[in-house]
Write a structure and sequence with these properties.
The chain has 214 residues and is of the alpha+beta class. Helix content is 53%, strand content 14%. The longest helix has 17 residues.
């Protein structure tokens, strides 16, 4: 059996991050039990300068990428289809907002110490993209934290402080120094890099090649 360390540089605001992870998950299921992986999530902020209230997602995408409303709608449909292929439901509601995810990353850094990073990451993706929960709303964040069995009092204290801010910024800086400028980026055994929301078949092929070199 071969063991892989897979670090995923990701933002919970990024739909391709969950599509890519789900493709990776399917590939690992196909490769099991010969290949096993330890998954670690690393922070990335798509919009570090976004104000706390955020921005309507459609307006944001049209402004940021210079696309039309029609192109935005087409992108949403494509993502819904890719989501179905990997068993993830996208529900792009009109009220969805793009926010700054720094507090989410701080909570994830804390959750990692409780061995709950991965389940919290999945819960945040589902809350944002499927349930349309605003992740800049403290009540929603606490509800999500509670849903994965983390202590809400500690989470509230964390959000009232700057706890884990230095760690998140340091991890972001390390990724930038590695030349990572887009997400998702999957780093295999600190050596190989895979970018984008690849299909399960693509992940399986790439991981098979990597395992042969081990």
């Amino acid at each position: 059996m071969k063991k892989l360390q897979i670090d995923i540089v990701s933002d919970v605001m990024c739909p391709w991050c969950i599509v890519g992870y789900k493709g990776l998950q399917k590939a690992l299921q196909q490769l099991a039990p010969d290949v096993q992986a330890n998954i670690n999530w690393l922070p990335f902020e798509l919009n570090p300068d976004m104000p706390n209230e955020g921005q309507n997602i459609k307006e944001h995408l049209i402004e940021k990428y210079g696309i039309t409303e029609q192109q935005s709608a087409q992108n949403s449909e494509m993502l819904k289809q890719r989501g179905k292929e990997v068993d993830f439901d996208f529900n792009f509601a009109p009220q969805m907002r793009m926010i700054n995810s720094f507090d989410c990353h701080r909570l994830l850094a804390w959750a990692k110490q409780q061995d709950k990073q991965h389940v919290l990451q999945m819960a945040l993706f589902s809350a944002h993209f499927t349930q349309n929960m605003a992740l800049n709303d403290r009540k929603n964040l606490i509800k999500i934290v509670a849903s994965v069995g983390l202590d809400i009092n500690t989470a509230n204290d964390l959000l009232d402080s700057d706890a884990y801010a230095k760690q998140v910024r340091a991890e972001q800086k390390t990724s930038q120094e590695r030349g990572i400028q887009a997400v998702p980026t999957f780093i295999i055994n600190h050596q190989y890099s895979i970018s984008g929301g690849q299909t399960a078949e693509a992940f399986q092929e790439i991981l098979t090649d990597i395992v042969k070199k081990l």
